[in-house]
Amino acid sequence: MSKDVNILRTEMIGYNEQADKYCNDGMLSNSCNELKLAIAKAEEIFHITNSIDDKNVLLELYMKIAKYYSKIYTITCNKKDILPSCMYYEKLIYFYEEELNNSSKNKIENLNKIMEVYVQLLWVCLEINDYQSFERFIPKAYKYALKLLRISKVYEDEQYFILVNIFKGDYYKALDKYKTAYLYYLVAMKKMKNIYKKLPNEGLLNDLIIIYNNLSDIAKHLKRSKDKIKWDTIISKLEKESEMFNNDK
């Protein structure tokens, strides 16, 4: 049996290496085809060994092919090119949720893994206007983001709570439910504002400006002139701070 696994592993590595070559040559569709073959071998290996190392290799391949399909979509803007990524993201979520439910160890690490996938999946749903799928995934994503926020105060962990609120704002904005969208953008803004005060840097500043721009746009739709003036004034001030960051480079 070990010989069979070794043969499978060699074949998997070969397909994966060929996928990398195709990717480096800009042949993403061919790369995905090779990755599918690598995944089939990785799934067979994990089914035989049930080892953590083999599972991790499989999960890495799931993430890799999902991101490749997303890259293809950014080039073609064709909805069918990104749909396969959703399947692989869901496979990842299944494994990560299983780990989280079966073990009390490494909770922060496991929640980070889950949220990384949910962010990718929610982005895809919004990008292709698949609001039915968004509604299906957002409750658990919000629950996990809130859980992570409560047990960790590291920005890298807090950012998921901010992103989920931004996604909800984007969702309700797309449905023209501006008052609800406004509330979620406000939550995201307040959290990001507090983080930026503690850890001022250009990346956070640019993210904060994006949120304020959303608030300004929603205020315009709601015909809240005073609010729009307030947000635009803050945006102008933050853009000057952004120029200072660029001048310091």
Descriptive keywords:
single chain; 249 residues; mainly alpha; 10 helices; 87% helix; elongated
Describe the overall structure.
The chain is mainly α and 249 residues long. Helices cover 87% and strands 0% of the residues. It contains ten helices and no strands. It is elongated and about 70 Å long.
**Class computed from helices, strands and strand pairing:** mainly alpha
Q: In one word, what is the shape?
A: elongated
Number of helices: 10
Sequence of secondary-structure elements: HHHHHHHHHH
Radius of gyration, CA atoms, in whole angstroms? 21 Å
- The percentage of residues in β strands lies in under 5%
Most strands sheet: none
Number of strands: 0
Q: Helix fraction?
A: over 70%
Euclidean distance between termini CA atoms? 58 Å
Mean of residue pLDDT? 92
Unreliable runs, pLDDT <50, ≥5 residues? none
List the helices and strands and how they pair.
Layout (H helix, E strand, L loop, with lengths): L1 H23 L3 H22 L2 H25 L6 H20 L4 H21 L3 H21 L3 H20 L3 H21 L3 H20 L3 H24 L1
Helix pairs in contact: 1-2, 2-3, 3-4, 4-5, 5-6, 5-7, 6-7, 7-8, 8-9, 9-10
Summary, kept brief:
With 249 residues, the chain is mainly α. Helices cover 87% and strands 0% of the residues.
